[in-house]
Amino acid sequence: MSKLYDLNDLENFFVKDLKDNIKVDFPNESGSVEVEKTIISDDIFLYKNSFNFKDDVSLDSSSSEEGLCINIVLDGSLKYTDRILDEQTNKCANSMFVKYINQSQSLFEVNKGNILKDIGIIIKGEFLQEFFLEKISNKELILKNYEKNIPTNFKTAQTNLKTKILAHEIFNSPYEGELHKIYLQSKVYEIVFHELSDILQKNRLKDIKKEVKLTKEDIYALQKAKSLICEKRFFLNLPKLSKEVALNEFKLKYGFKKLFNTTPGALILEHRMLEARKLLESSELNITEISKLVGYKYVQSFTTAFKKRFNANPKEFIKSRKYYY
């Protein structure tokens, strides 16, 4: 059975307060939590957190910290419960979430021997208003939830490579003093720019898709595009296919997903590979000639795509020819 501690009642624990660094040592040497706070700007704050426990521990926490929160787990894992939303998730290495919160009520459950490291970035004030809230389409709903103390979850996902590298650089800054602060500022601003841009771009795409309507002419063009691919009359790339059926690339991709539950690129690739396999097995052409016939400029690109599709080198299929020598 895990031990339950209330992080809001720090008087129960031995606390070392070193300026912006706080360390909480729990009773009976059961574990500790360390937090390092850095003020990046008037509206952006960075928290570097370390959880280290020798026993199974549950931590009950409430916070009035408000704003857009970017949380990135670097190492370790824990079970996280959002008491307001009554949602439970497992936070593990290389996972992240982005939420807009007014206050938080959380339960963290950490297993014995687990060392968890994460960073939290809080964005608020004029920066949040100018670079995020004014640009997002569902601002009214977000603010309404905010007033009701309901978090808005914008992202829960595996951390992408760029953000992952930046987060590790932040946690393991090689500098001290003023240079350390400048280093952290540059890395935090990169993460903020990257994540806000990603959320806003996806938000805009959702709005565009809501507005897209396929006319009879569009549907005819989409069916024609599919026929051109399937009939193998030519192995067109997306720009050429778009021009051939007189439909812009966005509507072509959107329409394929809507009508055929695939993408033009995936269908083109599949038919290229099937035709290539047929020619490898039954024609007298060599690999270079076949790669050009199915639309590849470079043999290596063709070989890589073929191996990925059939889990075998094109040479293996040539060997099955009746007159192979």
TrEMBL record:
Task: Please verify whether the record's keywords include Lipid biosynthesis.
Answer: no
This protein's superkingdom?
Answer: Bacteria
- Molecular function as annotated in GO: DNA-binding transcription factor activity; sequence-specific DNA binding
The UniProt transmembrane annotation reads: none
Keyword list, A-Z: Transcription, Transcription regulation
InterPro entries linked to this entry: Homeodomain-like_sf (IPR009057), HTH_AraC (IPR018060), PchR_regulatory_protein (IPR053142)
> Domain HTH araC/xylS-type: where?
231-320
Q: Is this entry keyworded Zinc?
A: no
What PROSITE patterns does the record point to?
Answer: HTH_ARAC_FAMILY_2
Record PANTHER family: REGULATORY PROTEIN PCHR
Q: Know the name of this protein? A: AraC family transcriptional regulator
Q: Name the source organism.
A: Malaciobacter halophilus
Record lineage:
Bacteria, Pseudomonadati, Campylobacterota, Epsilonproteobacteria, Campylobacterales
